[in-house]
# Entry
Amino acid sequence: MRGSALRVRAVAVGAAVVTVAAGLGVRAGGDGAFAKYAGSALYTVLLCALVACCAPRARPVVVAGAALALSWAVELLQLTGVPAGLSARSAVARLVLGSTFNAPDLFWYAVGAAVAWAVHAGARRLSATATSPSPPPPPPSPSAAPPPAASR
# Structure
């Protein structure tokens, strides 16, 4: 099981890097609503990758649920003004916490969690299929035995 957890962590780190690159690409190449909401969905996808890295044996639905809960918590925290204050002083805080509440983000976080869940569950199924040994052939049934030799 240890090798499996290490493999999951390696894939999760790779997924996090790809997600950050996708987010930067969307920000650089897109604008307006598409870039904003794609970024929101990718934020939750990134959190899914980080949760999977921290809890490699967790089921995909648990990983996606935890990431969605964290995304929603950060968005709701923005109603307090604390993230805005921290974001004014730190670029890292601005990237991680945002600054202003935007209700549609809650939906797009769920979209990101659903996409990450589907990819994670599919990858887990494929991995289980690829690593499981093929079942042994069934024993011959008595009715399939060759007929006895005929006597002359």
Summary: The chain has a mean pLDDT of 88.
